[in-house]
Amino acid sequence: MNFHDVNLIIEQGEGFNIEFKRRISSAEKIARTLISFANTKGGTILFGVDDNGSIVGVESEKSEIELIETAGSELSDPPIRTEIDIVPFNGKDVIVCSIAESRTKPHYFLGPQDRLDSENTRVYIRVNDKTVMASKEVVKILQDENPNAPPLTVAIGENERRLFQQLEQHDRITVREFGRMVNISDRRASRILVRLVRAGVVRIHTHEKEEFFTLAYEVKH
Prior knowledge:
By secondary structure, the chain is of the alpha+beta class.
């Protein structure tokens, strides 16, 4: 990683796999970002770069690198390994932290929680340019992506057939809408949808306010 590489990243701007941080305020905040990248498709964090892309530099490379390493090793389960580079940039140092997509998803946040009664608040993913808490459906999908997960089995019954018919006509559906349509609990509806996502038949769309599901293939009317 060199001056040219950092400049290219800054020109791209913040997004799904790039985040700028002016400074490290706490290991907990960094851990959430590391976890979101590891649980999604990986990414790069530039420390010492403002949100608008201007270079402010880091104050202490050693102490900030220690916070990053603490965030990955002590505040994530399983731990997250990062690749860290210090790049001189116009007389100021920028810390480049690269996180690969994990093969041991999901990673759980071990720091203090806002809502201790919900396990899902411990799992974060990347949505657009933000770090957000994962829903229980996304957590289950991440668990099933783990190489050690049991083999996937999918049975197509009446509930699944009605789901496909609904999606062919109306394009999208939520967990609650599916449960009400076929008169089953939200929990059972969630399990069915998650299995179909893992089978590649249905696609989950994650948004900050609401998640919905669509068919994974195009329907020609």
